[in-house]
Amino acid sequence: MTRKQILTFIAMGMGILAVAVAIPAIEKSFKTTVETIQWVVNGYVLSFGVLIVTFGRLADIFGRRKVFFIGLAVFGLA
């Protein structure tokens, strides 16, 4: 594995860890159960898995920079 791949895996792992650590705080803030929050986490992971493949292919076709800025704009508008 290259250094870049290792750093990518570490960054992804930290993102998932942050979501896992935040679950109790989210549960208290929204006054809900762990089971309900787990559905939210599952939805996040599922959409992340689908969109990373889709946008990776779009980046191959249209260019990484263009797709990155389009994604950034959509995220900013949301």
Explained architecture:
This protein has three helices and no strands. It has helices spanning 3-30, 34-62, 64-77. Helix 1 runs antiparallel to helix 2 (34-62) and helix 2 packs antiparallel against helix 3 (64-77). The termini are far apart. The model has no long low-confidence stretch (mean pLDDT 87).
Name the helicity range: over 70%
Structural shape: extended
Identify low-pLDDT runs. Answer: none
Cα radius of gyration in angstroms: 16 Å
Give a topology summary.
Layout: H1 3-30, H2 34-62, H3 64-77
List keywords for this structure.
78 residues; mainly alpha; 3 helices
Question: Quick recap of the structure?
Answer:
With 78 residues, the protein is mainly α.
